[in-house]
Amino acid sequence: MLAMNYRGPYRVRTVHKAEPEIEHPNDAIVRVTRSCICGSDLHLYHGLVPDTRVGSTFGHEFTGIVEEVGPSVQGLKKGDAVLVPFNIFCGSCFFCRKELYGNCHNVNPEATAVGGIYGYSHTAGGYDGGQAEFVRVPMADVGPTVIPADLDLDDAVLLTDAYPTGYQAAEMGEIAQGDTVVVFGAGPVGLFAAKSAWLMGAGRVIVVDHIEHRLEFAKTFAQCEVIDFRTVDDMALHIKRMTDWLGADVCIDCVGCEAAGSALQRLTGIKLKMQAGAATVLHWCINAVRKGGTVSIVGVYGPTFNAVPIGNALNKGLTLRMNQASVKRHLPRLIEHIQAGRIKPSEVISHRFALEDIADAYHMFSSKLDGMIKPVLVPRG
Ligand code: NAD
Ligand code: ZN
Do 36 and 375 meet the contact criterion of CB atoms below 8 Å apart? Predict the structure, then answer.
C-alpha cells in the first residue's frame, strides 16, 4: 500500500509498504477515506518529539471503511464507515473510566505521561498512523465511531481531533457568561476553540496570530476580534488595555512549542517577534490573563519543557488546565452542533492532497503558504 514515511526532520515521502494485518483479536483494519495533517504532526516533522523513528507513518486524524475485524470485535463490521479518535484507549482502566482517554494506562504502559496516539512516535506507543491507504485500529470496539449517515466525510474527519481539541480547550477555560476569552493561535485548533467559546457563553473572543490570511479567516469563521502579534510590543499590556486593565478572564494556548513559528521563519525568512528561547505563548497567557483567571493549554510541548513563569501564575492565583483532548467524550455534543447547523467544521479545510504528494503537503502546511489553514489527504480516483 501507499503510506507516508518519515525520513528525518523536514523529510517525508510516500513509499510502498506492507499492508497492516490483524495482530490482536480486538483489532480492525480500516481503509482510509480521509486523513488530515495536524499541527501536532509538525512537531514530529520538525524533529521535536523524542523517539520519532525513521520509517514510521504519521497520521492521527482519519476516517475510513472497516475492511476486516478481529474475532473479538463485536460492534463493528466490514463496510462500516468510521471516524477514529486520535487517542488509542482501552475504555476500562482507571483513567478511561474517568473519560481521560488521552491518559489511558493500557495502551502505552512504558510511558509516564502520554497514552497511545496513532502515528505519533514511540513516545506515544509506536503505533503507525492513518496517512496511508490502510491502518490497523487496536481496540476497535472502543475508539471508532460509526459516522452518522447525514454527516459529511470532511466534517467527520475534523471530529477525530481538531474540533474536539478546540472544544476541550474552551471547556477547560471554564468560561462564564460574558467572559473575555483570548485564543492564541489561529490554526484549526484555535479556530475551533474560538467558535466553541461563543457557544459556551463568552462575551468577547479575541484571536491572536501573525498569519494574515488565518486572522482574516478567523474574523468570518468565528466572528472574533483579532490581533496580529507582529504589531504589538507588549502582549500582556495590550490585552490589559483592551479589558479595562483587568486582563482576559480566560487565555487559551492553541500554539504549543515554538517550532511552528521557527519553522515559518526558517522557510520564509519572515522575522518573528518572540522572546528568545522562551515559551512565548505560555508567557503571554499567564501574563495577559486577569488575577484569578484560567489558562487552558492544548498546544503541545515536549515532555520536559519547563520554561513556564510559574511564579507569576502563583501570585495571580491562576487556574492552569491542560491535557491531550479526550476526543470520544465530546463526540455526541459536537455531532449535535453540526447537525443543528451551529458549526460547519469542514470550512477550515483549505487544501486537498493525494498521498503521493505528501512531501508538498507537509511543506505547505509547515510554512502556512498559499492560504493554508487545514490540509486533508484524499485517496486518488
Ligand atoms: P497550526 O500549526 O495549524 O497552528 C498554529 C498557529 O499558531 C499558527 O497559525 C501559528 O502562526 C500560530 N502561532 C505561532 N506562534 C504564535 C504566537 N506566539 N502567538 C499566537 N499564535 C502563534 O496547528 P493546529 O493544528 O491548529 O494545532 C495547534 C496546537 O495544538 C499544536 O501545538 C498542536 O500540537 C496542538 N494540538 C493539541 C492537541 C491536544 O489534544 N492537546 C490536539 C491537536 C493539536
Ligand atoms: Zn491532530
Answer: yes
* The CATH homologous superfamily of the domain defined by 2-161+326-377: Medium-chain alcohol dehydrogenases, catalytic domain (3.90.180.10)
Residue nearest to atom 18 of ligand 1 (CA): 281
Mutating to test ligand 1, I would choose from 35, 36, 37, 40 the residue with most ligand atoms within 8 A of its C-beta, which is 40
**Are domains 2-161+326-377 and 163-322 of this chain identical in fold?**
no
The phi, psi pair for 205, rounded to 5°, reads -130, 125
Which CATH architecture group holds 163-322? 3-Layer(aba) Sandwich (3.40)
- The model's pLDDT over 149-189, given as tens digits with 9 standing for 90+, comes to 999 999 999 999 999 999 999 999 999 999 999 999 999 99
Share the mean pLDDT of the chain.
92
- Quick check: helix, strand or coil at residue 334? helix
Specify the residue with its C-alpha closest to ligand 1, atom 15.
261
Q: Where are the domains of the chain?
A: 2-161+326-377, 163-322
Which atom belonging to ligand 1 lies closest to the Cα atom of 301?
32
Ligand number, closest to the Cα atom of 160: 2
ipTM over 0.90: yes
The answer to whether the pTM exceeds 0.90 is: yes
pLDDT tens digits, 287-339: 999 999 999 999 987 655 556 788 889 999 999 999 999 999 999 999 999 99
Residue with CA closest to ligand 1 atom 34 = 40
